[in-house]
Write a structure and sequence with these properties.
about 250 residues; globular
């Protein structure tokens, strides 16, 4: 009985963490903290951070939150909440949500390096949750309502971490470091996409790869006049599509 009560409390705590993050994120846009929203800063003082995707790319947060709410519903069902994998993922998600709430405050207060610390907590928590997805073969509903939301969330946070670090460097006045901003952006695009390539080769993770393709296209869209940026971004799209095709439809040996 104690274990059942504990499982139920953890499931409720997961609901609260996810819903609380959604509420804080929404309110931070309606009632800006310190007069700034994340978008205000990204398009204003941090407008020179070239790795930032076009504004429309951030609608993916809607997809992320819908996925997390779907996961919250799935994990709270009695037949699922007692599973060890679900409990481990819940603990990771709760930590990620707390860190994301902290990130919203730190970033909008322009404490960029502290926001990087919070972002790293989110990233590491989601990597831990993602590592749980590899354990065993799960039914289709598990892959849809657990693997999918975690993959999409981690993929976007991977992109966001690169942007966050670039923003902190830019705000510190260290954006050149011997290379042009466009050259550094091209390097970061390639390095970031190696993560997606790894997810494809090891897990054939379609949702994860699609998030990176979405980000690459948005980066290219924002910088159509800078070939040093849009060319590598589009090349990475082609590479990821090629890897997905290769992994999902491998050539049969003769």
């Amino acid at each position: 009985m104690t274990g059942v009560i504990g499982n139920k409390r953890l499931a409720i705590a997961t609901w609260i963490a996810i819903f609380g993050t959604l509420v804080v994120n929404t309110l931070s846009n309606i009632f800006p903290i310190d007069g700034n929203t994340v978008a205000d800063l990204a398009n204003g003082p941090l407008g020179g951070v070239l790795i930032t995707p076009a504004n429309y790319a951030f609608i993916i947060w809607g997809v992320i939150y819908v996925g997390l709410l779907a996961y919250a519903q799935y994990q709270s069902q009695r037949q699922h909440r007692g599973q060890l994998v679900i409990k481990r993922i819940n603990c990771c998600l709760i930590l990620a949500c707390i860190a994301q709430i902290a990130w919203i405050y730190l970033f909008t207060l322009q404490l960029y390096w502290l926001s990087v610390v919070a972002m790293m907590v989110i990233l590491l928590s989601l990597i831990a949750a993602y590592s749980e997805l590899a354990e065993g073969q799960h039914p289709i509903n598990h892959r849809r309502w657990v693997n999918g939301p975690i993959s999409i969330y981690l993929a976007w946070i991977s992109v966001a971490t690169v942007v966050n670090v670039a923003s902190a460097i830019y705000a510190s006045g260290l954006q050149e470091l011997g290379l042009s901003g466009a050259a550094w952006t091209a390097i970061m695009i390639v390095i970031a996409n190696l993560i997606a390539a790894l997810a494809i080769m090891q897990r054939q993770d379609l949702p994860f790869a699609l998030v990176f393709i979405w980000a690459d296209v948005a980066i290219a869209q924002r910088h159509q006049t800078i070939p040093t940026i849009w060319v590598p971004a589009i090349m990475m799209v082609l590479v990821l599509v090629g890897l997905l095709t290769y992994r999902r439809y491998p050539r049969k040996s003769w």
